[in-house]
Amino acid sequence: MEPATRLDHNHELALKDLPYIIRWRDDRCKRCGRCTAVCPVFAIAPSVVVKRAVESVGKTPEPQVRRIVQTVVKQSNNIDRYCIGCATCSLVCPNDAIEPEYNERHKFLIHKNQRGVAYTRGGRRNDPNVSTLDKLKFTRISMLTDPALDAGRHEFRIRTYLGRILPPDELPLKLIDGNLAIDKIAGKFIPPVREIYPVMIGSMSVGALSPTMWEGLAMGVTYLNEVEGLPVVMCSGEGGMPQRLLRSRFIRYFIPQIASGYFGWDEIVRALPHMIDDPCAIEIKYGQGAKPGDGGLLMAHKVFKLIAEIRGVPIGVDLPSPPTHQTKYSIEEAVAKMIQSMYMAWGFRVPVYPKISGTKTAKSVLNNLVRNPYAAALSIDGEDGGTGAAYNVSMDKMGHPIASNLRECYLDLVKHGKQNEIPLIAAGGVGKKGNLAANAAALYMLGASCVSIGKYIMQAAAGCLGDEYNRCNVCNLGLCPRGITTQEPKLYRRLDPDKVAERVVDVFKVLDTELKKIFAPMGRSTELPIGMSDGISSDDPAVAERLDISYVC
Fold first, then answer.
1. How many CB atoms neighbour CB 94 within 10 A?
2. What pTM, to 2 d.p., does this model score?
3. Is the same domain home to 232 and 291?
4. Is 292 within the bounds of a domain?
5. Which of 378, 419, 418, 377 is nearest to 402 (CA)?
6. Least enclosed by CB within 10 Å: which of 106, 369, 449, 451?
7. Phi, psi (5° rounding) for residue 119?
8. Range(s) of the domain holding residue 226
9. Same domain, 111 and 140
10. Residue-level pLDDT, tens digit, the chain, 553 residues
11. What angle do CA 358, 359, 361 make, to 5 degrees?
12. What is the dihedral of CA 454, 460, 462, 468, to 10 degrees?
């Protein structure tokens, strides 16, 4: 083999061009090989290097040159094997000899778009700035003017409703001998309503998540309902659900999602005659906040046998969903056809609602839903929502923040006098900095009836390594070092579903306690402070003006 020329090296990337640089300490390393064995992207590998050493020995030394052969751990400068900063190597190293270090001056995005293919990644948008929700604080604290409550001893009932709430004049009630009674004929047309916990686990599909992760979430949700008495529900995401779950009584804690790819719905339709209970609701996905305007995508790396069986597709093929439901060409048609057909499938017993991405057109969608007597809710997913696979430019440069989008929609409902009829579900970046209860409470006061979380529960329940500094973010490739978003058995076996379930229960019990701490000074114990915007303020004048709340400094 001919030695490499200067021209060959001239076209290589320097390590400083990459987002993470591996810091390896020769003096601590025992060459056990654990770090190179667990690296999910093969960014490091054992290697042999020849070093040139100059030594001078004796009373009248003359410089002597000799070569030293050493074994090292070498970082790849190949853009297809860049270090993702997951630090799995640090976790297994017995001597703290290796760790990735974030490189603020990297040129990763400049070099990543290779061979004319745009950069696709998972995770959440790379924006380390403080979100709007974290700029809000609760300033309505009752002392003597209002009846404040003791969060530790008072009895609370933190619940919300999922489904269309009819106004009093439309309720099927009539007066018989001075007593109120339900009109049996009109009562058959009451829209179905579910009482749920005001924080739900959002749309993460079987396929996007590993079997162990999805199983852990499902077990945690079931335990919360049946043991802890917290009616937490979970959305299935696009792609169907296991047949055993569809035909079990536990389906009542889940919200099956139908999206534009219709993946998995053949199996759901076949299971309908055998269902012993109804699902909590049906979600129709038109868009998601992380990639507005794009359809869904489950890459071939994750379509293993189990996923292919559930979705009814071949093994090892990309599964793209169109940007919209191809049989619906307007929101009016979508509301009239899709929502109506889903209601009919379950005999008008199950609430049906659409999910859209945060956008300036959200109010137009909402105004159409207001006119439909069976529209159960509207779920709005803000720009900070996570995703399994999306173009980097979609994640970082498209979308609408959830706070202002939600506020616009709620105030629009107020103008129409419909604010108590259609619940608004808010999602996208909730708990981004770990302040889940505070973010959720702020969204309630801005007008949300329920909050949906996804990335937060992945971080809290399974220790997702991704962050806003482009760390990890290989959810789309099925290389998750934690085993959360992969279908590779040797990776997802690292995750214990029982531990995931335990952490899910812990998260919601702590959340319940913290929400009580926030609601107690406001005197709220049996109903959410929905739209109670006088309870929050901001120290940012622009945020206060945009959200129509008070400014404090």
1. 9
2. 0.92
3. yes
4. yes
5. 378
6. 106
7. -70, 125
8. 132-551
9. no
10. 455 555 567 778 899 999 999 999 999 999 999 999 999 999 999 999 998 888 888 787 888 888 899 999 999 999 989 999 999 999 999 999 999 999 999 999 888 887 888 888 888 888 888 889 999 999 998 877 777 888 888 889 999 999 999 888 777 777 778 787 777 666 666 889 999 999 999 999 999 999 999 999 999 999 999 999 999 999 999 999 999 999 999 999 999 999 989 999 999 999 999 999 999 999 999 988 888 888 888 989 899 999 999 998 999 999 988 888 877 777 777 777 888 889 999 999 999 999 999 999 999 999 988 888 888 999 999 999 888 888 888 888 888 999 999 999 999 999 988 988 999 999 998 998 899 999 999 999 999 999 999 999 999 999 999 888 889 999 999 999 999 999 999 999 999 999 999 999 999 999 999 999 999 998 888 889 999 999 999 999 999 999 999 999 8
11. 130
12. 70
CA atoms of 473 and 470, how far apart (whole Å) = 6
Of the candidates 552, 548, 551, the one whose C-alpha atom is nearest the C-alpha of residue 445 is 548
Q: How far apart are CA 79 and CA 63, in angstroms?
A: 40
Does residue 363 sit in the same domain as residue 436? Answer: yes
| Helix, strand, or coil (residue 443) | helix
> Do 499 and 220 meet the contact criterion of CB atoms below 8 Å apart?
no
The letter for the amino acid at 151 is: A
Structural contact between residues 524 and 486, judged by C-beta atoms closer than 8 angstroms: no
CA dist 192 → 109, 195, 334, 375, 434 (Å): 48, 10, 20, 10, 34
DSSP class of 132: G
Contacts of 504 (CB under 8 A, 6+ apart): 201, 216, 217, 219, 220, 221, 223, 224, 457, 461
For the chain, how many structural domains are there in total?
2
- Counting every residue written for the chain, the total comes to 553
Please count the other Cβ atoms lying within 10 Å of the Cβ belonging to residue 419.
18
- 183: domain CATH number? 3.20.20.70
Nearest to 477 by CA among 238, 122, 84, 206: 122
